[in-house]
Amino acid sequence: MKLSFLGAARQVTGSMYLVTLDTGYKILIDCGMDYEMKKNPVSRGYLFPFEPVTIDLVILTHAHIDHSGNLPALTAGGYKGSIISTPATAELTSFLLFDSANIQWNDYRKNLANTKKTRREFIPKPLFTEKQVQECVDQFLTLHLHKPFKVNDQISIKLIEAGHLLGAASIELSITEKGVTQKIGFTGDLGRTNSKLVKNGEFFENINYLITESTYGGRKHLVEKNPEDELLSYIQKTCIEFRGRLVIPAFSVGRTQAIVFTIHQLKQKGLIPGWLKVFVDSPLAIKSTPVYERHPYLLNEEAANFLRTHGNLFHFEGIEYLEGMDEHDELLKYYDPCIIISAAGMVEGGRIQEHVTNNIENPYSTILIAGFCAEGTLGHRLLQGQSSIRIKNKDRNIYAKIARTDVFSSHPDHDEVKNYVMNAQEKSGDNLKKIFLVHGDVPQLMAMQADLTAEGLGDKVVVPDMQEDFYL
Ligand SMILES: [Zn+2]
Ligand SMILES: [Zn+2]
Fold it and tell me: Would you say the pTM of this structure is higher than 0.85?
């Protein structure tokens, strides 16, 4: 069989890997949007280096757009088969894809309005419509964790807990060719140990090939307090001592729920005063939050116990979920101390950009960056320690406190990924032939490769290139 790296190779986004059996049967693992593509995918002329109609099966690790975002383009382009994922991933992906279609169409309309007539034909069109998203969603076939699924005599699939996001799975793919069975483990995105809400990830056993993420290769998460203490110290300083606003940019799915749940825990312990309002300004968060309570079997012990005791995870006195733009506009004029959680995490556009703009020149406000910010994003620029910043063609002084925390990071750091790989090595021994490092920027991948080489795995570790093929 052949394994082809078609995305997230030597970069973070656009996860997409193709396994082609000797018979020609093609299995696509993930079909993510590539945020790092230098050229616009439309102007490049193709999104996929294959005909969608030639794919036989798709398996999705988890809902994040860098893994799922091109699925509607794949199905609209002719793929008519099943998309296998866990039930929670299917639900969350559906919300994220509709949201993505919406964002693309809004951007397109804005671009049209701001471009001269003669240049309008060069504006990239949205990749898909809402109708095409619905058609794509209809092709999902759900598979629970730990339930092996035999596709045919040659192929079977097992999903295990990845510990990254509700429903996120690592994929164990067993392929039998000429009487020999080989097992390939795709980690998808992994999580940290003891994350909020989700369980710890599980390890592969006895695999022949490992394809692992290495987002934070070479980096160590700051040694920190637990999430409750960390968040409480920001809340106390900003909202109670300084009577200011704590603005937290957070992705609507995953990070927002982890933060809201932590605030709920603090409330239950009586550590946050009743008068302090918490605003979640994100329609997508409103849609995706109930998915957590619909799949309680996926929650870790702490969250499951909390749910049993208090009846819910994300609703408490003082929290308000804002859906409409009118509510959002009202919040922009709310000047009492409060916590504002809004999307997206990297502060690129969206409602959060307005909250950041609204608070950046206020010395009483704190903007707490709680996740990974890719270079070039406003979130990344905020963290550079400058005294002023340009937002939407206007220079603004930075008087607000800009802070950063890793406690809600949904990716493992260097040591955690290394331990994961060493565990796979221990449980697989000589059967493990190759370890492919993906889903990381080049310095991160190189740091991981160097460390694994120092551990004696140099012969096995590969950092594949985009479009590189390997015969397994
Ligand atoms: Zn992810
Ligand atoms: Zn990812």
Answer: yes
